[in-house]
Design brief:
Blueprint lengths: L3 E2 L1 H12 L10 H12 L2 E2 L9 H7 L7 H9 L3 E5 L3 E5 L7 H8 L10 H14 L22 H12 L2 E7 L2 E6 H4 L11 H16 L1 E2 L1 H4 L7 H13 L4 E5 L2 E5 L16 E3 L10 H8 L20 E6 L2 E11 L4 E9 L4 H18 L4 E4 L2 E3 L2 E2 L2 H12 L1
Helix pairs in contact: 1-9, 2-4, 6-7, 9-11, 13-14
């Protein structure tokens, strides 16, 4: 058993675990979509739509021929459900029971976003029982004053609280707005709704994380999961004693892994494919981990004041083989069908080779966003402006 991994090998097994280059063609498109979600445990949902939304984007990178309709079909078939992972996400329905500990703790008083308004919650729940699935817009806002867009009306807060406690589930989305229904009317009839024991819950959390990410620390396994790190550390150590886990060292940092992790080293990894990733892709959502293991310091700048942005509003990470080779701020003009590359920032010592491989992926990304042409506005390399002739050369190759 190889218990010390080079950084190169660590990157390889992480990418293989994430299925980032897998693009399986076995089975129907809907089944491939499901397997992609199941393999990495969840897909984060996000509302930003300058290009195709994050949940569709992240699945598309793992499931060839994916379209948003496939996700809708899986929801309708009750094979995935919406709840909270480290953020709002789609999760496999077979993992439903492992959402219950969080739901139960919120029902007991833990605060997710809002304090309970029992009266509003009761009124909302009673109406859905009678009228069936409803959205927040189906409830009138009786307040006389509002303080801003963030000041949700009481019914919307009640819906979200009931959703987080488990009384309601999201049956679908309309125009990206949640449609809620009673949990018992949404769940498949054969689903296991028993609350897992503490040991079951933590083993599930740990094993699922390591299946999807190859290696991890308690801090990474519990990313944005409040108050669980100490328990995860304890269970990881016990699982090592029981032979369920091993420890591996990468750059003098110890990680937990499954005993089968070394089998991944025997598999092949593409060296030339470029993946245009969503900022919310599971592979790099933990920025500190990404910097440590891939030497890629990524920041999404949509939350940064425009004057302070270095790359652009919504820069997309560019993965080339096992290395990150840059980032690309892009926006699709849906009326004109133009994919605008507002800023392509290259961070590789082989930009000429990279552009050739990027072109293949950019064409696929254009099609995925239902575009018909590409417009390149700006190209830089390692924070420096390229000679005008080189910019023209790269631009002509990308838009050809």
């Amino acid at each position: 058993m190889k218990n010390t991994l080079s950084l190169k090998d660590a990157q390889k097994i992480i990418l293989l675990s994430q299925g980032i280059y897998k693009e399986s063609k076995i089975g129907t498109a809907k089944e491939i979509t499901y397997k992609a979600i199941e393999a990495i445990n969840y897909i984060q949902i996000d509302s930003i739509s300058v290009v195709e939304r994050a949940h569709h984007h992240s699945i598309w990178n793992r499931a060839e021929n994916y379209t948003p309709a496939h996700l809708d079909q899986l929801i309708e078939d009750k094979r995935i459900f919406e709840y909270w992972s480290h953020a709002a996400s789609y999760l496999p329905m077979i993992d439903y029971r492992y959402s219950l500990p969080r739901k139960n703790s919120i029902a007991r008083g833990d605060i997710h976003w809002f304090k309970k308004d029992k009266k509003s919650m009761s009124l909302v729940l009673d109406r859905i029982k009678i009228d069936g699935p409803l959205q927040a817009r189906d409830f009138k806002d009786t307040r006389k004053t509002k303080t801003g867009w963030w000041d949700w009306k009481p019914a919307k807060k009640a819906l979200e609280q009931l959703f987080m406690e488990g009384d309601l589930m999201v049956v679908k989305r309309q125009g990206f707005q949640k449609v809620y229904d009673l949990t018992e009317r949404v769940l498949p009839s054969d689903i296991d709704i028993s609350t897992p024991s503490e040991e079951e819950y933590f083993q599930h959390l740990i094993i699922n994380y390591l299946n999807a990410n190859a290696i991890g620390t308690p801090e990474q396994i519990t990313y944005l999961l409040k108050g669980l790190r100490t328990s995860v550390q304890k269970h990881c150590l016990q699982m090592c004693e029981d032979g369920l886990l091993i420890t591996v060292t990468v750059d003098n940092q110890s990680y937990f892994a499954l005993p089968t992790v070394n089998n991944l080293l025997k598999k092949k990894l593409s060296r030339t494919k470029v993946k245009i990733l969503s900022p919310f892709d599971n592979l790099l959502i933990q920025r500190k981990r990404t910097k440590t293991l891939f030497n890629y310091d990524y920041q999404i700048e949509c939350y940064v004041p425009a004057i302070k942005r270095k790359i652009g509003y919504f820069s997309l990470p560019l993965l080339w083989g096992r290395k990150f080779a840059g980032r690309m701020d892009a926006k699709i003009d849906r009326k004109l069908g133009i994919l605008n590359v507002l800023h392509l920032h290259l961070e590789t010592e082989k930009p000429d080779e990279f552009i050739i491989d990027l072109k293949k992926s950019l064409d696929k990304f254009l099609s995925f966003n239902n575009g018909t042409s590409i417009n390149v506005v700006k190209i830089t390399h390692n924070n420096l402006h390229l000679p005008e002739a080189k910019v023209k050369e790269f631009t002509s190759k990308l838009i050809a």
